[in-house]
Amino acid sequence: MATRQAAAAKPAVATRPRRKAPAESRPKEGRGAASLVERKLQSLGLHGPEDFLLHLPLRYEDETRVVPIGSLRPGYPAQVEGEVLRSEVMYRPRRQLTAVLADDSGELQLRWLNFYPSQQKQLEKGRRLRARAATCAAACSAARWCIRA
């Protein structure tokens, strides 16, 4: 009991009013988090709002350019658009979906190793298809593709 009374009897510690920091120790113009971000943006060449609109991500792929099938080069990624001539599921060492895509300049065989039945249904004959992938000799493992009306 005595310790509780002694603890309660202690006077409250008086708090001193906070002093403002002297002008020398205050952050100067051009220092701090905001200016650090500003310096990093300027090092990227971003100075105004229009620069932010035109700044592209590191691995940006231009999906607006469609290349004719006849001008594809092996090993280079490209985006092609054409009509599906045929598609089928093949059982070579493992199940694969293949489709032949054609435009005015040539034909290209597309191959999917992982696919769903709904994707197989979408690749019906006569459908317009846009695919983007890297090509090998005469076939293309389509990484991204979409159906065009």
From TrEMBL:
GO MF annotation list: DNA helicase activity; hydrolase activity
Enzyme class, broadest EC rank: hydrolase
Source domain of life: Bacteria
Regions of compositional bias (Low complexity) in chain numbering: 1-15
Gene3D superfamilies reported for this sequence: Nucleic acid-binding proteins
EC numbers on record: 3.6.1.-, 3.6.4.12
Domain (RecG wedge): residue spans on this chain: 39-130
Biased composition (Basic and acidic residues): 21-34
The protein's name: ATP-dependent DNA helicase RecG
Gene that produces this protein: recG_1
